[in-house]
Amino acid sequence: MPIESNYERTILKIILAVVNKYYNITIIKPLFDFITDNKEKYRPDFVIIHNNKKIFIEVLGSNNPDYLAHKNHINRIAKPAFNHFIVVKAFDLQNNYDRFIYDLTNALQKSL
User: Fold this and answer.
1) Domain boundaries, the chain
2) In whole angstroms, what is the distance from residue 57 CA to residue 29 CA?
3) What are 30-74's pLDDT values in tens digits?
């Protein structure tokens, strides 16, 4: 699986630890953009598919205002295509670790 940063590598390890308790899991690291009906492009950092439910995982690597504005735009256009949408601040994982685990576990439980 191609990983774009150490942040993504760290988040993928956490994802793998959480999803190993479930069956029928597919983890995708998209190589190409998805395109909405309005021709807007976006690419999730990870997509988890569980029982035909799609979970979007966005890994934030910075708190730069321009970066966050771009990520907010992606969130807005991508949310309708997914059952669950999780954003994790990997640049501040120490303060976000438990919340990410909770959000991911909750999304997986809802897809049972």
Assistant:
1) 6-110
2) 10
3) 999 999 999 999 999 999 999 999 999 999 999 999 999 999 999
